[in-house]
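Why this split exists: single-chain examples teach little about how molecules sit against one another. For that reason, every record in the complexes split bundles all components of an assembly together and asks for one structure covering all of them. Below is a record exactly as it appears in the raw files.
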Amino acid sequence: MPDYNAMELMICIAARLLEDGSTLGVGTGAPCAAAMLAQKTHAPSLFVAFEAGGLAPLLPSMPISVGDSRTFYKGLMATSMCDIMEACQRGMVDYTFLGGAQIDMYGNLNSTVIGPHGKPAVRFPGSGGANDFASLCWRTMVLTQHDKRRFVAKLDFLTSPGFLTGPGAREAAGLPKDTGPYKVITDLAVMGFHAESKRMQVESLHPGVTFEQVQANTGFELLKAARVTDSEPPRPNELRILRDEVDPYRYVIGR
Amino acid sequence: MPELTSGLGPLFTDPDPDAARAFFREKPRALINKVMSVKDAVAKLIHDGDYLASGGFGVNRISTAVLHEILRQRRRNLGFAGHTTTHDFEIMCAGNLDGEKLLARVDASYIVGLEARGLSPHARRVMQSGEVDVCEWSNYALACRFRAAVTGVPFVPIRSMLGTDTLKRSAGKEIVCPFTGKKLVAIPALYPDVSFIHVHECDAYGNCRIKGITVADVDLARCSKRLIITTERIVSNEEIRNTPYWTTIPSFCVDAVCEVPYGSYPGNMPGEYFSDEAHLREWLEVEKDLDAFRAFLKKYIYDVPDFDSYLRLCGGVEKMKQLRAKELLLPSA
């Protein structure tokens, strides 16, 4: 048995994708843990922005809310939502991490309703800042559990844009050029998007997981990258920092 | 000419800048003492049918005392800007119980959830019943509705929401930029009838200081027709005048000043006290069972005369000291 769990693996993979000196629009939970881990390993000057106005904090602990006081603890600035979102809109924010109740093959996300909008079977929070981040940041990453309930052929509601209906659709809709989904990191695999078709493709498989297993947990046909690699397990120093410094109460990484 | 989408969502308020100018022309500007109780402020300024907006960020720097008082005074048929609302939305939804309808219309960018704490069972019940009209927005779009209103123009253009169902269920409209030919979304101005914002300090006239992120409150304060300020403490006008660069809301926007120490409880107040996670968890838990929820609301809101009594029920000064230690990252926390 490995000495780490699926969430720890996902957070470590996500953290490694964040370059030092880049900017990241982030929420609470696993994405925030990935940002903190990156800061404490290879990316000390990762510039974290929270949608409520916290800019570049030195996070003392995991925030509970994207607007709580930890999100600007020893930050460079405590500003406004418009200031953060307009930094995204003018092209200053490189990455964002999002989640959702449903995701489709083009990386579109639903976090609004299951069932009809007027009288839904399930009401979720809605966009929050997710649509803005997905529209305006350069690269969108998604961290989520991998199952058929989430990875669906058709969303009940398209809250936040991935590649919409495929090649050229974002540009046709008027979204900023060269933006869109970049990686989807789950408990089974890491997926990217095919350069031409913009469809989701498996790029690396987590230890012990087969492509067939990933496909069986996905409600649409997955593509395979030209070279599918093995996901690198958490390194000892990553696990130590994640457990001792980032999430000592194991809110996100679980027990 | 590209095909342009218009959102099908309802527009609950009038974006006309001249109607707003006519209102603001009559709004008093004088430096007068506006200090009053929360009970009086709500009785005087919030009426059935009004459209309301809550400052802060859901459970951070919120005006809990005003929200409770709206429940106690049993206001009905309200509109609400669900801009990053969490515990504030949860309190409003408590007014939709047993056939009563406090909440009738919502501009929703973030509702129903309490972020990492989970979803509110009762807010979901209310929003899944179909009894509340909903218009969808993103957080930035809804913040820009305040921004347009502040600017005194009918809309501002933005580049998010394009291509999504969020746009289709909003009241935004796609337009073509006259300079670049690019598609944009026109976001209509929103002038709330009444807003309530909790601040760290203000003087008796309502000149306010906020320490920390301002979220959308710099704009919200300016675009609201009527504004209730709750404040941790009242300071002298002389102190405000000595450091005018710290003023974030000027008094001519403000209609009532209510001194409410710990007024964001059980939410977080930057530099003052952290959120009471146990109390917030209890609130989410009791909502699962309607009888338990009714008893909870009776105990904490309907059977107490004011916010001070609520604080005492929740542990009083001892509890506030613990939350302050937690906020300040003191070793005792």
